[in-house]
């Protein structure tokens, strides 16, 4: 089968950073689905895993996690799906990725895809939707249905990116929070407002001062979606007593969370691969979560976040997508479709 892979970890400008190849088609066993891939999307995790390092792979390594496609075959222990079903999912970082014609995935982390949603629309959603959902409702413990008035507030740092594009919508439309999102360019400001942000500030500026200027001396929740090292001091400053901060981005330096003690405020992490990596008892919650996201999309309560579709799925186009993501100016999600 066709696949895009790497053996060396190189700058994305290098033609061998990702290359077209042919590998054996896998077979479904246990609780796995074999999925014929129709569309994929790129995420920061793809570029981070591919980033230059000295490691050399003995056999081609296939990356990629977001995918949508059709079930080709099922393992003997599968109970939720059958061949021909349309599905979407974010995969498992401990297993080969989705940048291939066929892919194996545990049925518990897979969502059923309604006929009304295209593969390319669906491929943009899984990783970011799971991350945003888990960050808001599992880690920050934002209540649903919403609290009685006055409604609580959230600062979403990095509102125009892939996760931010879902988080803003879930926070505003599903959780009923007063949403302050950060964005720095006219087009990204317009995007987060379209998604439901009530206020927009610039994460390159003095965020506590900007928040105070629009009437938020403190916010109940802070969700950090880029550069934890840079943004945590502002987050600890503005989070309200008994509030919570969640980040999805690894830190490079020691983090000072001591300002949170007097506030009895929480600091938590979200990593959407935790359930599949550790085979937690509640893995199936990701499949259920994705099906709820599909329902919300079908009903018009959520807006699709794929902003551009590139075709076909090949190494040249995937390298272009990685390069654009690394440049840091992508709004929403980049999707590739059709081998």
The number of distinct structural domains comes to 2
Radius of gyration: 20 Å
What is the CA-CA span between the terminal residues? Answer: 10 Å
Query: Would you give the CATH topology of the largest domain?
Result: Quinone Oxidoreductase, Chain A, domain 1
Described by its quaternary structure, the protein is single chain
Kindly name the structural category. alpha/beta
Total beta-strand segments: 16
Count of helices? 10
Assess the beta-strand content as a share of residues. 25-35%
List the uncertain runs.
Answer: none
**What is the H-and-E element order?**
EEEHEEEEEHHEHEHEHEHEEHHEHE
Mean pLDDT: 96
Name the CATH class of the largest domain.
Alpha Beta
CATH architecture tag of the largest domain: Alpha-Beta Complex
Protein name: Zinc-type alcohol dehydrogenase-like protein
InterPro entries: ADH-like_N, ADH_Zn_typ-1, ER, GroES-like_sf, NAD(P)-bd_dom_sf, Zinc-ADH_QOR/CCCR
Domain Enoyl reductase (ER): 13-336
Family: Belongs to the zinc-containing alcohol dehydrogenase family. Quinone oxidoreductase subfamily.
Fold and architecture overview:
This protein is an alpha/beta fold and 339 residues long. It has 2 domains: 2-125 and 278-337, Alpha-Beta Complex (Quinone Oxidoreductase, Chain A, domain 1), CATH 3.90.180; 129-269, Rossmann fold (3-Layer(aba) Sandwich). The chain has helices at residues 44-50, 119-123, 126-139, 162-174, 186-195, 207-213, 228-238, 274-278, 284-298, 315-327, and strands at 2-9, 19-22, 32-41, 53-62, 67-74, 86-89, 102-106, 110-112, 153-157, 178-182, 199-201, 219-224, 239-247, 266-269, 306-310, 333-337. Strands 3, 5, 6, 7, 8, 15 and 16 form a 7-stranded mixed β-sheet that branches. α5 (186-195) links the parallel β10 (178-182) and β11. It is globular.
């Amino acid at each position: 089968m066709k696949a895009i892979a790497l053996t060396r970890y190189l700058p994305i400008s290098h033609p061998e950073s990702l290359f077209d190849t042919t590998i054996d088609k896998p077979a479904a066993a246990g609780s796995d689905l074999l999925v014929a891939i129709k569309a994929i999307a790129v995420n920061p995790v793809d570029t981070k895993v591919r980033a230059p390092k000295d490691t050399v792979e003995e056999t081609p390594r296939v990356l990629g996690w977001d995918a949508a496609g059709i079930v080709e075959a099922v393992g003997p222990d599968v109970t939720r799906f059958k061949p021909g079903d349309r599905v979407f999912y974010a995969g498992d970082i401990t297993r080969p990725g989705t940048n291939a014609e066929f892919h194996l995935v545990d049925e518990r982390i897979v969502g059923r895809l309604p006929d009304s949603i295209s593969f390319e629309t669906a491929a943009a959603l899984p990783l970011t939707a799971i991350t945003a959902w888990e960050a808001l409702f599992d880690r920050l413990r934002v209540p649903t249905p919403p609290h009685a008035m006055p409604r609580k507030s959230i600062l979403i740092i990095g509102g125009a990116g892939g996760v931010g594009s879902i988080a803003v919508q879930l926070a505003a439309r599903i959780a009923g929070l007063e949403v302050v999102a950060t964005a720095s360019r006219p087009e990204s400001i317009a995007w987060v407002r379209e998604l439901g942000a009530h206020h927009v500030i610039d994460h390159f500026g003095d965020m506590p001062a900007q928040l105070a200027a629009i009437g938020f001396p403190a916010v109940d929740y802070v969700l950090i979606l880029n550069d934890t090292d840079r943004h945590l001091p502002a987050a600890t400053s503005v989070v309200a007593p008994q509030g919570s901060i969640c980040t999805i981005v690894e830190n490079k330096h020691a983090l000072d969370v001591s300002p949170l003690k007097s506030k009895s405020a929480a600091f938590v992490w979200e990593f959407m691969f935790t359930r599949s990596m550790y085979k937690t008892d509640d893995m199936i919650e990701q499949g259920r979560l994705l099906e709820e996201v599909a329902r919300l999309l079908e009903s018009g309560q959520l807006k699709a976040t794929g902003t551009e579709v590139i075709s076909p799925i090949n190494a040249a186009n995937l390298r272009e997508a990685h390069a654009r993501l690394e440049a840091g100016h992508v709004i929403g999600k980049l999707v590739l479709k059709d081998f």
